[in-house]
């Protein structure tokens, strides 16, 4: 897992823009008010005011600070606020009950047991109103291509070129010659949308990732801040595990493995649940290339290349990038697939320092 630094000036700018426009959107849906900025594409779009909001929810969300926290707060803040809002709406809210409600919420009432009907009666109205306020799929995905802030714009702003979880697959944002949006990163909801509908537009809950990590690997697995690393929280996420490998002489085969610090169960659980070890086992070819280089050129490979290009005055970092096609500095790993994997293996082979 890569970390994303909110202090980085591009990420901070993306955060500010996200906060501004999502705030405009939700406030307009709740109160009809606009921000007064004539250039605001979000306020310029017509939207219906949501009627029949429970008073408790209305009071919480029309408070400027609370709404800003909901959109731009830290993962910790989001988790706390989400819980607080549930308890505002349903004073005897209970997570166990709620977890039983979720799988039956779309079923026909008459097919449910009395207990299940009770849960639907208790939770359904409050659940659905959250979906209506957030409206992630229709509004944020912006399939109609309205000229305004949306998922694509966030991807452009964040400019994360590889998947935050695996650093294996390109997630570049691309438009074609006709200005048509061709591709962008997926957003994995770290707090899953199904369980946390109110957090579906929260900046720190939108993790730019690849389709594999978003849909098939992480899916709706329950991650919690106590048990799993979070890209916006764990700034040391990268250094807490290393890719390595085993060689089995009897079968002449390799196996990629991942190591973390002794007792670091949080790191171990994170890469285990993201299935990083299995996924990286697809990269034997790259592993063998690096081992071959080591055998052919000793550990002075980069130094020798630097000597060869002496007149060009290239730095160690520049030669490394040229030689292995990946980024050298940790903060730049997100720009090229496999940067973390290769650096770990090259370091183990003593081909990189
Ligand atoms: Zn606005
Ligand atoms: Zn991925």
Automatic annotation (TrEMBL):
Protein name: HNH endonuclease
UniProt organism field: Mucilaginibacter pineti
Lineage summary: Bacteria, Pseudomonadati, Bacteroidota, Sphingobacteriia, Sphingobacteriales
